[in-house]
Design a protein that fits this description.
Blueprint: E1 3-7, E2 10-12, E3 18-25, E4 33-39, E5 46-52, E6 57-60, E7 68-73, E8 78-83, E9 92-99, E10 112-113, E11 117-121
Parallel strand pairs: 2-11
Antiparallel strand pairs: 1-3, 3-8, 4-5, 4-9, 5-6, 7-8, 9-10, 9-11
Length: 122
């Protein structure tokens, strides 16, 4: 049973920073694609960033490039999302999700999700 638990959300002013964490367990595969998504009220869930644990390749949606950094600590089974220079439009519930490969970033392609952590920028 795959379990993902996010933490680190909160309220910050524009220009501030937050670091989200996602602790995973029960992965059925030796390597996985770990991703962050976000969903603002009234909007569809959108992909934010991903890291492929096989080679630490990273991927970002254009709106966060240069501001967000995804990384991981293998011995802690933890993936991080460092968010700098936050903007009000970054306000959303942030979710950690995983699938075997980073071949699709559609939310429907991910079978395993955490419960989410709220980020508010105002």
């Amino acid at each position: 049973q795959v379990q993902l638990v996010e933490s680190g959300g909160g309220s910050v002013q524009p220009g501030g920073s937050l670091r989200l964490s996602c602790v995973g367990s029960g992965h059925p595969y030796p390597t996985t694609c770990m991703s962050w998504f976000r969903q603002a009220p009234g909007k569809e869930r959108e992909w934010v960033a991903a890291i492929f644990t096989s080679d630490d390749s990273t991927y970002y949606t254009d709106s966060v490039k240069g501001r967000f950094t995804i990384s991981r600590e293998n011995d802690k089974n933890t993936v991080y999302l460092q968010m700098n220079n936050l903007k009000p439009e970054d306000t959303a519930m942030y979710y950690c999700a995983t699938r075997r490969y980073c071949t699709s970033m559609s939310p429907t392609a991910f079978a395993y999700w955490g419960q989410g952590t709220q980020v508010t920028v105002s």
